[in-house]
Design goal:
alpha/beta, eight-stranded mixed sheet, 11 strands, 499 residues, three-stranded mixed sheet
């Protein structure tokens, strides 16, 4: 199979070719490996190959044998952060964990393997998934295939870049503040964050970031995302909560008529910041298209105390990072040296030790009440439409800490005082820089609602800019119906960057 033939199919289409006997899983894996060899030096999306295991799985036609599972024989890449694959390191983009091999698959990894997907390697991610761009010191920055001096976003930026570059049709992602939707927007892909609790976190984890972080995939087609969610959702033994099961398979929703929906739209950011005219234009374009499709669009927005939200969200993330570092230390058998964590991560870890249990609980309570307010706003609408991000894909280095900020963080890290770090306000400034880029997406991580970025718009510079649609809690079905409708009305599958 040539590369042009390979990228002409989504994951569902490639699996159909395998089942029909037109191509073997080994041939598809070779397509992916050749593409990695050809383009990865430019984009730095794949940081670790799992070639031995992948060749073994491909020789069987996929992990469950040819014809078994919806994606039997299809090459797949895993994000190198939360989903664990036995016998391979999960670095989380950190020097501290670069060579730490995990002993067992996580539940989501088991379910991905059961689809028959051939897991060929791991994709780049910022250290501990903390930034909305993918520029870890361990592996170096991932570059956007649409323009190599631009970021593919983060924290699933390696996965986004790998799909856009034609390495695989689908790859793993996790979304704790927009980390599936952000790279989907920056790379011209479809990215759905499922409802809190929809996909499993077991057997070693409960709620990721208190339920704010959810794992799924990035894809080129809507139906691939729906079919993978069909294969991976469902009860997870000992999970902290369960949510209503879908009425029918999500894959069927993609072809279903959504009916006439009432959709609120806004370009007003939830966290105060400037919004680039191209991102505003993308929303106006989507509003016009949705109206053409028969939906009722209303300009409206949910007022949120953005600065307080940013403070509370940062408090939760700091607390969770502190616990993550402690958990990783127990697994490795020692605490990390200061040189093994990036300055911002080390400082945020120190800050987590300076925060009180009361401040963490207050942050959780505040965000929970905010979630009730947002839920009340949604009672008047079926969906809400916003920009996904506030700017086109940013240049490499634009959102990571500057050289001056790094030196300040390093100095405070040497002193080792979380209290001084808190007083200096450097972490708050870094958080503001990140949230200026993503003023909408984290809101719906906290509320737990499903949300998606849809690639409908490219600016005059040829850069993709996604639009963001949010649904009711546990109602991915409506999102998939609308996504399928938009995909048919404005196809994007054949829009690929030229590398």
């Amino acid at each position: 199979m040539t590369h042009d033939e390979y990228v002409a199919h989504d994951a569902t289409g490639l699996a159909e070719r395998v089942r029909a006997g037109d191509v073997s899983a080994t041939e598809l894996l070779e397509c992916a490996l050749r593409r990695i060899e050809g383009v990865n030096a430019e984009i730095n999306a794949v940081v670790r190959l799992m070639e031995k295991d992948a060749r073994h799985a491909a020789a069987q036609g996929g992990n469950q044998g040819r014809g078994a599972g919806p994606f039997a024989g299809v090459p797949f890449l895993a994000k190198d952060l939360t989903t664990m694959y036995a016998g391979h390191p999960t670095s989380a983009g950190s020097r501290f964990l670069a060579d730490h091999v995990v002993e067992a698959d996580s539940e989501l990894a088991r379910r991905v393997k059961a689809t028959g997907a051939v897991v060929a390697g791991k994709t780049n991610t910022p250290e501990w998934g903390l930034l909305p761009v993918t520029e870890p010191e361990l592996w170096g920055p991932t570059r956007n295939p649409w323009h190599l001096d631009r970021s593919p976003g983060g924290s699933s930026g390696g996965s986004g870049a790998a799909i856009a570059a034609g390495i695989v049709p689908m790859a793993g992602g996790g979304d704790g503040g927009g980390s599936i939707r952000i790279p989907a927007s920056c790379c011209g892909l479809f990215g759905l964050k499922p409802t809190r609790g929809r996909t499993p976190t077991g057997p070693k984890r409960g709620q990721l970031w208190r339920g704010a972080s959810v794992e799924h995939v990035l894809t080129r087609s809507v139906r691939d995302s729906a079919a993978m969610l069909d294969a991976t959702h469902g009860p997870d033994t000992g999970a902290p909560f369960e949510i209503p099961a879908p009425v029918r398979p999500f894959a069927e929703e993609v072809e279903a008529d959504p009916g006439r929906l009432r959709i609120a739209w806004t370009t007003i950011p939830s966290v105060p910041t400037e919004v680039h005219p191209d991102c505003i234009a993308a929303v106006h374009d989507a509003v016009a298209l949705l109206e053409e499709l028969g939906h009722h669009l209303v300009e409206d927005h949910m007022p949120i105390d953005g600065p307080t939200f940013a403070k509370m969200f940062m408090t939760i993330v700091a607390g969770e990072l502190g616990a993550d570092i402690a958990e990783a230390s127990a697994a490795v058998g020692r605490r990390p040296a200061r040189s093994e964590l990036e300055p911002a991560t080390w400082a945020l870890g120190l800050l987590s030790e300076a925060l009180s249990a009361k401040s963490y609980a207050e942050a959780l309570r505040w965000t929970e009440i905010m979630g009730r307010d947002v839920g009340g706003f949604f009672e008047s609408y079926d969906l809400v439409l916003t920009p996904t991000v506030s700017t086109p894909p940013p240049k490499i280095g634009a959102i990571s800490p500057s050289a001056t900020e790094r030196r300040q963080l390093e100095l405070l890290g040497v002193i080792g005082s979380g209290r001084l770090i808190k007083m200096a306000g450097l972490i708050e400034q870094a958080a503001k820089t990140a949230l200026d880029f993503i003023p909408w997406t984290p809101i719906y991580n906290v509320t737990g609602q499903p949300a998606m970025s849809v690639p409908l718009y490219w600016n005059d510079a040829g850069l993709p800019i996604g639009v963001h649609l949010v649904g009711h809690f546990a109602d991915e079905a409506t999102l998939f119906r609308v996504a399928g409708q938009l995909e048919r009305a404005r196809p994007w599958f054949d829009r690929l960057p030229s590398l």
